Structures are given as structure tokens and as C-alpha cells.
Fold this protein.
Amino acid sequence: MNEATLSEISGTEAPEAVSSARGRRTRLSGWGRYPACESEVYRPEKLAELRSVVVSNTRTLIARGAGRAYGDAALNAGARVVDVERMNRMLAFDPKTRALRCEAGVTIGEIIDVFVPRGFFPPVTPGTRYVTLGGAIAADVHGKNHHRESSLAAHVSWFDLMLASGEIKRCSREENTELFWATVGGMGLTGVIIELEIRLRHIASAYLEGEIIRAANVDDAFARFEAADSRYDYSVAWIDCLARRGALGRSILSVGNFAAPEALPARLRQSPLRPEPPSRLAVPLDLPGFVLAPASVRAFNAAYYLRHPSAARVITPYQPFFYPLDSIENWNRIYGKRGFVQYQCVWPLGESREGLVEVLEAIAKSGRGSFLAVLKKFGAQEGMLSFPMPGYTLALDFPVTQGLFEFLDRLDAMVLKRGGRVYLAKDARLAPEALRAMYPNLDRWRQIKAVADPDNRFSSSLSRRLKMEPA
Ligand SMILES: Cc1cc2nc3c(=O)[nH]c(=O)nc-3n(C[C@H](O)[C@H](O)[C@H](O)COP(=O)(O)OP(=O)(O)OC[C@H]3O[C@@H](n4cnc5c(N)ncnc54)[C@H](O)[C@@H]3O)c2cc1C
């Protein structure tokens, strides 16, 4: 395929005539459904509409993509939110360089649908396909291959950023370099990313060849991660966070590489880039609290662990490997109406084992079980406010219940004393002092924001809660 206009390939339509964008009062939340608030929401489809929203000198504004950040990053209580999902045109692709140019509202899922049949895959993907590239750059997302490929920013050649003045700046490692690094992981607070170039990776099949590995406890889990590191591009572990004593940290590792077509069973070899679409289930309503009671989580965890014996070689289509939760529509409703918080932290490599033991012991003792408890290894990382650092990261879901935030404050202190930090894309409750201590480049970031956005026009519920804005 030559460099081509991708609207032909993807079926996306050319924009209609310019019309002025209008806001609509809407109640919004992140994926965790906590907190929720009202904002004036704009949904521009074209650049001129976006610019008119950005430059209008009324209340503050924050960009919103697919709303998959868990907490308040894409919320702006009582002010304005600009939803850029309709600015999602793919513009050009060069198969030789694997460079895709597109608007920032394009999702990882849209890239997959167009490019997997052509033998390409996003270089980094979070655990859901329902995120926009703009949102993914703003959070500088990581995937199961961070230990090999770092975060998304490592694969972004440049992006165009609309500043509060309406001016558009091309940002890359060579041009407006500081603004590039302040926007990557900058949670939408420097401006709106409108267009970008990203390099995809080549794949020869849409299946992964890997292993399922059972680890009996924390030490076993770390040993197996380290052993898998050099052999596998992708690795992740599900941890039974309620196991205690000798079984503390018992887990199921899932590791893999994209498979060569020759490695597939004969029936899949016919069309190795076109796996069956997965079936989708839905959670029809908010589930009652007892479903998440510690006893239910403990029983689920024990059964899950026992049902996954080690398997030396497994072939898995990419969908369940990368996006197991996407097959359950609205799975966030299982946590009930009060919503939930995802707590994701990282420790430096040398502190990871002790840090993990300490946090798992605190969770097991508290009885606050989490169905989802995921451990990943991080490698090298650049960026000012990017979350990853070389070490291990743990992510856990907790329903919002009495005493939860006090408990998480205690986890923050444990993480902080070991030089770790908490992920802003998942956060809804961190304190400003903790943020300052966890992100040492915050002051430098503030200086760059002050130049790009001198009147703090870009502001969110998260940035105000965390006092991120320059004084
Ligand atoms: C099931 C699930 C699994 C996940 N797994 C992972 C994972 O493995 N790794 C990981 O890193 N993250 C993960 N996440 C988090 C998710 O990848 C990030 O929160 C991502 O930012 C969501 O993108 P979005 O398009 O939904 O952005 P939103 O949630 O809408 O916004 C997130 C942030 O991006 C900013 N933003 C959005 N669009 C733009 C734009 N065009 N210009 C400037 N700023 C913008 C917003 O202001 C906000 O600060 C997961 C989330 C879910 C729900």
C-alpha cells in the first residue's frame, strides 16, 4: 500500500460544511464512575469548530477522548469539556516506514480494525481498545510490552497541539521539544492534541504464541517475570491479592509474542491475520454490593488460580490476550452505583519486591479484595509527568466504600517511601502533597505550562484537586 488517504481504506467520511459547535450540559464521569459532575460539553468535528471552543474566553476547558481514564482527568466540574472523539480521520499511511498520520480522536480499536488485516498493530496498547490516541498520549499509556518498548510516546514522531490562543504548534523531539515532553503524560493541560504521526509495528499473524505460568508466591512471580523478560515481548500477571502467608503474591503469568503463521494450527494458517471476532457479553445493571464482598472475591480468586494450570505453549487470538475485559460491555457496572477506584502504583526495580509484599499484606489484612489485580514490569522511560519508571507496577480495583480513601492514603505513604508513584490516569483521590513528592519534574512542567497556557485556560477536576496549575 502506498501513502494513501485512509478515508478510502477505513470508510471514514470527509467532513461536512463547517458549523459552529454548541455546548450541552451533561453529567460525566470517568470509567470508574467516581466522581461524576456536570459540564458544558462540546463535540466539534472540524478544526474551525474546535478553535472557536478553545479561544472563546469563557470558563476553563479540558479535552476528553473516550472517557476511559478512571477518575477525574477528563472532567471539568461546572466548566467546559471538549470531546474530540468525532475528530477521528485517518489521513495517510506509509507501509515502508509504518508511519500512520491521523487525527487524535482515532481509537486504538479503529487502528486495529483497519490495520490488523494488513499486518500491522499499535506499537503499545493499554488493556482496552476503547481509547483515543489523544487520550493515550496525554496519559502516555503503557502496555504489556513496556519492558521492551517503553510507553506510547516512544512511538509518536510528532503531534500538533492547539494552544489556548488557538495557535497550533508542531511538537516533536526536534521541534518545541519541551512542549512535546510536557504534553506527553500532561493529562490534557497544555492544549488539545489534534493530529499526530505514530509508527505501527509489523505482525505476521493476529495470534500470540506464549505460555501460561503459575507462580506459587511473590518470589516465584518475580523469578518467572525475570526469566520471561528476554524471551517475550508481552507479559502480565494476575495476582490473587487476598492470598496470605506462604501463598502471598501467588499469580498467573501470561506471556507471549506475535506468532509466525507457521506456528499456527493448520485451520488458522489459511487466514492468519483474520481471527474470529470475540463475542461480547453485557452487564445489564449495577450489581448489588454482596457480589463484591470479601468472601466472594476470595472464592473467585482461589477458583481462578486453580483453574489455570501452567501450560507450556498456548496460541491465543490477540483480542482475549490484550483486551480480556473488552468482551464484557459496561463491566464497570459490576461495582455498583457508587463506582470504584483503580489504584495503580509503581516501585523502582530495587524496591519492587519489598513494596509489593508490603502493599499485598496491607490489602489481605484489610479484607478489601480486588477481582482485578495486575502486575507488570516496566523498562526504560522518558517524560516529565509520565507514570512508568523501571520497576514493577501493580493495578487494583476497589469499590468506593467507607474508609477506602483513608486506606489508599496509607498505600500512598508506603509507595512514596520507596520512591514509587501513583498513575494519574487511574486516580480520583490522591493528595497534592503526595503528587509533588511522587513527580519530581512537576515544577519544571509547571514552568512550561505557564508559557503555553499563561491564563490556565486548560484545567480539569484532576488538576484543581491536585493543585497542578502554576500559581
Ligand atoms: C479497561 C481499561 C484498561 C486500561 N489499561 C491501561 C493500561 O494497560 N495501560 C495504561 O497506561 N492505561 C490503561 N488504561 C487507562 C487509559 O489508557 C487512559 O486513561 C487513557 O488516557 C484513556 O484514553 P481516552 O481516550 O479514554 O481519554 P480520556 O479518558 O477521555 O482522557 C484522559 C486524559 O487525556 C486527555 N485528553 C484526551 N484527549 C486529548 C487530546 N486530544 N488532547 C489533549 N489531551 C487529551 C484528557 O484531558 C484527560 O486528561 C485503561 C483503562 C481502562 C478503562
Summary: Residues 1-20 have pLDDT under 50 and may be disordered.
